[in-house]
Amino acid sequence: MDIKDLKTLIKMVTETDITEFEMENTEEKISIRRGKTQEIVHVTAPAQMAAPAMAAAPVMQAPAAPAPAAAPAAPAAGPALGERQEIINSPIVGTFYRAPSPESAAYVEVGSVVEKGQVFCIVEAMKLMNEIEADFKCKVIEILKENAQPVEFGDPLFVVEKL
């Protein structure tokens, strides 16, 4: 399977509610699993010299679905939170963008009220634009990242107050 086909499979999984996908043929076996803590793609192909043994290919990080963007607990080194405040963390590694394009207005500003399902930002990963959406109605208290700044999995992006 080439990288284009693999990317298509990853996109299919991330755009649906599928949490696990497996495909096997005579040449290779592909497993894609998503969870709250990590997303992995594992491709196994037959070894060149060994008879029926299987050799493991490199594991790639798959883009996460945009929906599970809010985390109920703050990281240890994160900002101090009020009673009803929560942190919105990055679900994937990538580049943080506050707007859909450089000419566009930001999705949210400090003080914005965000409805459930509304987009907070985009995290670009492997040329895929992943919209980070609100899981609940909230008010943006603080924006923790600068536009076009790289982010890691679990990095805090926003401080919000549940409404």
Short characterization:
The strands form three sheets. Strands 1, 2, 3, 4 and 5 form a five-stranded antiparallel β-sheet that branches. Strands 6-7-14-12-9 form a five-stranded antiparallel β-sheet, with no helix packed on it. The protein is mainly beta and 163 residues long.
Describe the structure.
The protein is mostly beta strands. Helices cover 7% and strands 40% of the residues. The protein contains 1 helix and 14 strands, in the order H-E-E-E-E-E-E-E-E-E-E-E-E-E-E. The strands form 3 sheets. Strands 1, 2, 3, 4 and 5 form a 5-stranded antiparallel sheet that branches. Strands 6-7-14-12-9 form a 5-stranded antiparallel sheet, with no helix packed on it. Strand 1 (20-24) and strand 2 (29-34) form a beta hairpin. The longest helix has 12 residues, at 3-14. The protein is elongated, with a radius of gyration of 18 Å. It starts with a helix and ends with a strand. The model is unreliable at 47-60 and 65-76 (pLDDT under 50).
How far apart the termini lie comes to 47 Å
The helical percent reads under 10%
Unreliable spans are 47-60, 65-76
Strand content: 35-45%
| Broad structural category | mainly beta
Counted by DSSP, the helix tally is: 1
Helix and strand sequence:
HEEEEEEEEEEEEEE
**What is the total tally of β strands?**
14
What is Rg?
A: 18 Å
Q: What is the residue-averaged pLDDT? A: 77
Tertiary shape = elongated
Question: Biggest β-sheet, characterized?
Answer: 5 strands, antiparallel
